[in-house]
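Incident log, entry 3
Record: Por secretion system C-terminal sorting domain-containing protein (229 residues)
Problem: checksum mismatch between cached and fresh output.
Input:
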Amino acid sequence: MKALYLLCLALGSSAFAQTITFKGCPILFDDSVYTFTKTGVDAYNKNIYITIPVTGDQDCGGLGTCEFKIQWNNTLTRWEFLADTGNGTFTNPNLIYYNSTGNSAFVNPPANTIGTWVENTAITTGQCGGSLTSANSTMTGDVHTSTLGISSDVTKTKIQIFPNPVSEIISISGIEKAESVYIYNMAGQLVVSEAFSKKINVSQLTSGVYLLRINTRDSQIHEFKFVKK
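Fresh output:
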């Protein structure tokens, strides 16, 4: 292992580059500051962040060189903080922290004050000082800092999609500030991505069950299952 390549969440976002700046785990990371840049989205529309540039020469204090990544693990429904053992390939990464507390509705990871970023002591041997907090770390930028963006059941009852099952056009009512629409198949693959419209053409989809996700301008997310005939 090229030294334990640890992934430090760093946030510092601008209107164009979505970045995370992190400082923490000083024993392993030698009190360094790391910056992660959004490099794309996964099949579940979750953002992926990697320390840039990936050149294999990023200093990680006592660990030597490293590359880091923050990504969503849909199987375990949690955000993960990963360390590469190579030059940014992340083929067999080490899990440093994970956060699985109420974050499934967001496309970006939680800050160190939301839920609990748990230290994976099996890898760090406890050298990071335990779970991330505002006292032992800083995490700023493209992270969410509250859980207010999660749509409530009361709100969802006001929004309707119809008809369901549907053959060609699915209509959406009860929402005005929507921004984008995403449709996923049951394998988690993104099959439709477009600007919000109250009428969505799904005639091109094969028969089956799908998940429709609506993102709003005030960072709420609403999800509905529907059947394509």
